[in-house]
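Weekly modeling sync, notes
Attendees: AB, CL, MP (scribe)

Item 1: holo prediction request
CL wants a bound-state model with NAP before deciding which constructs to order. AB pointed out that an apo prediction alone won't tell us much about the pocket. Agreed to run with the ligand included and paste results into these notes for async review.

Input as submitted:
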Amino acid sequence: MQLEDIISPFDGRVVGQVPVTRAPEIESIITKSVKAADLWRHTPAHIRSAVLLKAAALADERSEEIAQIISSENGKSLLEARGEASRSGEIIRLSAFEGSQLYGSTLPLDANKGTGLEKLGFTLRQPVGVVVAISPFNYPALLVLHKIAPALAVGNSVVLKPARATPLTAIALAKCFTDAGLPEGVLQVVHGAGSELGNALVTDSRVRKISFTGSTATGAQISSVAGIKKLSLELGSSCPVIVMDDADIDFAADAVALGGYINAGQVCISVQRVIVHEKVMANFLDALKPRVEAIKVGDPKSAETKVGTLISETEAIRVEKSIAAAVSDGATLLTGGARTGTIIKPAIVCGVNPKSAFAQDELFGPAIAVSSTTGITDAIAIANDSPYGLGAGVFTQNMDNSIQIARELDAGSIHINWTPLWRADLMPYGGLKSSGIGKEGVRSTVNEMTEEKTIILHGRSWQ
Ligand code: NAP
């Protein structure tokens, strides 16, 4: 068995090893998953729920250990990693609850012309069967749990392929489930390059559901080869935030200084485009600059560090080059942007042409692109001028602006007086346009990981 080293993006230390799965092994892994799906589906919901609740308690108990793993392999600050790990137990508990709520509905068949009372119709939800879950590196615990916990809660088996850079968190979480009594084979974790394993996983006709979170390019590749199966795609973005002339400027600056830089900007709902009313541009930048300069970057394990590394030096160089290209296109670097290894100083880039690559392409780094607007209708047009539509935010005190935004802005989540970088694990979450298909958020995922059957009992009339 070949082992692969997992490397700290901060100092290149080997932080763990994982056995590598090869593409020809996927066939037997899915065969095992098919058998396990049959067993788990026939396990009553209250027993499944008890296993999940035990797994949640173990995830709570192991929260610090999981946080250390996240920070080591992903490079995010321990502060952020602790926040992420601490949500694990709750996501599993929410899933255990939703998994025990698979209600159907009774159908009023006698309202169909010619049908009497002799027939009885209802709907029944059942697990899809084998789920393939593919997750990215940026939230190695949350984005894994948002797939596997609801999938297992409703009685599916799962083959999980975490990001190649961050498999150790996935292994630690999977152990919570197996230690809680999840039967062998119901959850299998495979490791290796998505480019090698991806096709074997997503094209197998025994797989009924693919739940993918990652880049739009990989999502497009998966949807082109997946065939007939249920597909959830949580993809890329370039999230806008609008700051209107009636906004509370200090409050907006506080929120943008968080929303643009958490996890070194490697968040699908990170603030990327900041569209500021021209009347308050100077005040807003004056308020924002010191806040961004105060963000302490550095060693992820240091207690003072707020924001850690990018996932690799290659990624950090890509972000550094994007900032430099924006500046050579005529934008102004107000602060930040310097790179040391995998760390980039949080940057504000002003006067960005909203049509330029720096605004349009997903940056996935610690920088924001500031552009100006003349009013709410213009701001919405700029915000919507993007291939993506995941999250958006607006800062305004005006109810009419808020309602216009809610109705006219094309984004899966819209935050009035906050940035898109906010998520409750129970809320529907997913993008429009090239940001994806389907919704996550535990109740929505339960829906997407089950199938509805219509049952009709054809009785004889007793009248
Ligand atoms: P990525 O390169 O697309 O990788 C995501 C996952 O897909 C990884 O496990 C990867 O494996 C795997 N993969 C790669 N090629 C594949 C193929 N041909 N078939 C099947 N799977 C394949 O994305 P990333 O760089 O890890 O993550 C960043 C992206 O995720 C950003 O675009 C971000 O916006 C998006 N994201 C979206 C959301 C959301 O909710 N909308 C949330 C978080 C992140 P390897 O690691 O082995 O390459």
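Recorded for review: DSSP finds 16 helices and 22 strands in the chain.
Action items: CL to compare against the apo run; MP to circulate these notes.
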